[in-house]
Amino acid sequence: MHEKNISQGKKIVKPANECRYPKTDLVGQRFGRLVVKEFAGRGRGSVLWLCSCDCGNNSIVSGSNLKKGQTRSCGCYHKEFRIIHGATKGNKPTRTYNIFHGMLERCYNTKRPSYKDYGGRGIYVCDEWHSFPVFRDWFESHVGEGEQIDRIDNNGPYAPWNCRGATRKEQARNTSRNINITWKGETLCLEDWAKRIGLSETTLWNRIRRFNWPIEKALTTPAFRGRNQYTK
After folding, report:
1. For 66, how many CA atoms within 13 A lie in the half-sphere containing its CB?
2. Percentage of the residues of the chain whose pLDDT score is greater than 90
3. Does residue 46 or residue 82 have the better pLDDT?
4. What is the pLDDT of residues 163-189, one digit of tens each?
5. Helix (H, G, I), strand (E, B), or coil: what is residue 70?
6. pLDDT at residue number 36
7. Where are the domains of the chain?
8. Are 113 and 92 in contact (CB under 8 A)?
């Protein structure tokens, strides 16, 4: 009777290994450097597996990450990659490596928010720059301290012939929103024309790109307020 009262109203929690075994058994299979040793339970909707890595470490990895190829080591591969390519400084990625990695992510990782503005519109990285040592040699000889890598043609690829070192201000001038405008024999970027005539960049950009005003009309019409400012 005493034992019965103790058990009433209490939820019995099974150990992880006693959870419902998955339909697909991955034990013994290899994924990169990882070999699955045993089922490790479930967590946050994922099937978990205990894996041994070729380096000797053990780690628990979700089955979906193993099958998709998203996890192929206990973390030792990335650490070795950075060390082998001279991409670490004080056990942290160098500035050059971060720029290299970010460049590839923007062009090829569809899950990155910035992908739509790069890979999503055809921007790619030239074949030779898929090698970090090659990119590092170019970057360290062409990009100064405080500068970032900048594409000369904003619609062109990341390649030696289309890239240079540029400050953040110079980069801002070279966006798809900024354009060069020639009027009366003088060529300035949209930002400079806007400052000269006393308009906001947004107003001038809308006049030219969105509402297709002739250049002369866009540059000579004074700023005014109201919904009809672009149809005057």
Report:
1. 26
2. 22
3. 46
4. 988 776 666 555 555 677 888 888 777
5. coil
6. 94
7. 16-78, 94-173, 180-230
8. no
Gap between the Cα atoms of 132 and 50, Å rounded? 33
Query: What's the distance, CA 174 to chain centroid?
Result: 20
Beta bridge partners of 151: 163
What secondary structure does DSSP assign to 86-114, as a single string? T-EETTEE-HHHHHHHHHHHHHH-TTSGG
* Helix (H/G/I), strand (E/B), else coil: 42: strand
Helices marked H in the chain: 2-7, 63-68, 76-84, 95-108, 132-142, 168-173, 190-197, 201-205, 215-220
Burial class (CB in 10 A: 0-12, 13-18, 19+), 157: middle
The whole-angstrom separation of Cα 132 and Cα 103 is 11
The amino acid at residue 103 is: M
Q: Is the pLDDT of residue 7 over 80?
A: no
- Count of H-run helices and E-run strands, the chain: 9, 10
